[in-house]
């Protein structure tokens, strides 16, 4: 009996499927069936009753399962004790998110990870739209994506690392910038600069418009955060921009937060990957991000929030 026989047995027992067990173990269905058959031959007892596509444990299988699970637990404990050092782990790793998020949120994380894991070839890719990141993950073009939660596909899983907020911003000279109470009618008459469709912050803005019953006057759309911010600064229109991308502009009072009605547009984000088939380098990246959350800007970690005066206030 080899460990791979025990591993296949536990996987089939838990998933009740040779096909799903194969997906989990990165084996074909026939390879899993062969492993189980050899284990049954050695034990001289059937372990599963096959009923169409579904399988269930026999009495012998039920008796064997606790011991098999204990073997799996002991193997995991042993593997943890002899885990490779960061400097020994190698391989390619493709991480993708928007260019703005890469610049403002993840630059320090990427740098620190590359220094700690010198043999991992970190390939950072800037995707034009949030949906592109999702599609590249699902197609295998990316190993890790930085995405908002909840996730867009049941095939994806991830770890929440922080949150962001879409702030409604204007130039200080804009008529709405100094208005003490901005109404829905005021926003209905305003000119908006928005992200393109299929981008996350555009989705937040569209949700806001629906809830407020506003049909926005859109004068510019782009996937470029720097362009949207610049055009907002010169007063071309007002815009929803990520809080982490405008901290300097708020501090220098080149932009101010418009005190509009309605809900705050906040959501969580984190590192996301396929539920199955995760490479060793990707596993290390996720663990590194969770353990080194402090590398993200404070505004993304929930410690501070921007105000209309451009100050930073600690969240109570």
Can you tell me about this structure?
With 316 residues, the chain is α/β, with parallel strands linked by helices. The chain has 3 domains: 3-81, Winged helix-like DNA-binding domain superfamily/Winged helix DNA-binding domain (Arc Repressor Mutant, subunit A); 89-163 and 268-304, Periplasmic binding protein-like II (D-Maltodextrin-Binding Protein, domain 2); 165-266 and 305-311, 3-Layer(aba) Sandwich (D-Maltodextrin-Binding Protein, domain 2), CATH 3.40.190. 43% of the residues lie in helices and 24% in strands. The chain has 12 helices and 13 strands. It has helices at 3-15, 18-25, 29-43, 59-81, 99-116, 130-139, 184-189, 200-212, 225-233, 247-251, 280-291, 298-301; strands at 48-51, 54-57, 91-97, 120-126, 144-148, 156-170, 191-195, 217-222, 238-242, 256-257, 265-274, 304-306, 312-314.
SSE topology sketch:
Layout lengths: L2 H13 L2 H8 L3 H15 L4 E4 L2 E4 L1 H23 L9 E7 L1 H18 L3 E7 L3 H10 L4 E5 L7 E15 L13 H6 L1 E5 L4 H13 L4 E6 L2 H9 L4 E5 L4 H5 L4 E2 L7 E10 L5 H12 L6 H4 L2 E3 L5 E3 L2
Parallel strand pairs: 3-4, 3-5, 7-8, 7-9
Antiparallel strand pairs: 1-2, 5-11, 6-9, 6-10, 6-11, 12-13
Helix pairs in contact: 1-2, 1-3, 1-4, 2-3
Q: Classify the beta-strand content into a percent band.
A: 15-25%
pLDDT < 50 stretches: 303-316
CATH superfamily heading of the largest domain: Periplasmic binding protein-like II
Shape: elongated
């Amino acid at each position: 009996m080899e460990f791979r026989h025990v591993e296949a047995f536990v996987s089939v027992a838990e998933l009740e499927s040779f096909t799903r067990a194969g997906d989990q173990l990165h084996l074909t269905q026939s390879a899993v069936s062969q492993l189980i058959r050899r284990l049954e031959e050695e034990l001289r007892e059937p372990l599963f009753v096959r009923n169409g596509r579904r399988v269930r444990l026999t009495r012998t299988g039920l008796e064997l399962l606790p011991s098999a699970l204990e073997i799996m637990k002991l193997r995991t404990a042993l593997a943890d004790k002899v885990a490779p050092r960061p400097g020994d782990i190698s391989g390619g790793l493709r991480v993708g998110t928007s260019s703005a998020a890469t610049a403002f949120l993840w630059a320090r994380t990427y740098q620190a990870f590359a220094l700690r894991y010198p043999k991992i070839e970190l390939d950072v890719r800037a995707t034009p739209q949030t949906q592109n990141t999702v599609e590249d993950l699902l197609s295998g073009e990316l190993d890790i994506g930085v995405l908002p939660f909840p996730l867009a596909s049941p095939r994806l899983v991830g770890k929440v690392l922080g949150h962001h907020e879409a702030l409604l911003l204007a130039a200080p000279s804009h008529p709405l910038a100094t208005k003490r109470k901005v109404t829905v009618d005021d926003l209905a008459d305003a000119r908006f600069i928005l992200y393109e469709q299929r981008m996350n912050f555009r989705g937040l803005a569209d949700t806001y418009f629906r809830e407020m019953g506003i049909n926005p006057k859109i004068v510019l759309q782009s996937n470029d955060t720097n362009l949207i911010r610049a055009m907002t600064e010169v007063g071309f229109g007002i815009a929803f921009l990520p809080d982490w991308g405008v901290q300097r502009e708020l501090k220098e009072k080149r932009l101010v937060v418009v005190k509009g009605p309605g809900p705050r547009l906040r959501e969580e984000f984190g590192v996301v990957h396929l539920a199955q088939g995760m490479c060793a380098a990707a596993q290390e990246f996720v663990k590194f991000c969770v353990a080194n959350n402090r590398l993200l800007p404070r505004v993304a970690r929930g410690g501070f929030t921007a105000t209309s005066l451009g100050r930073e206030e600690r969240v109570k």
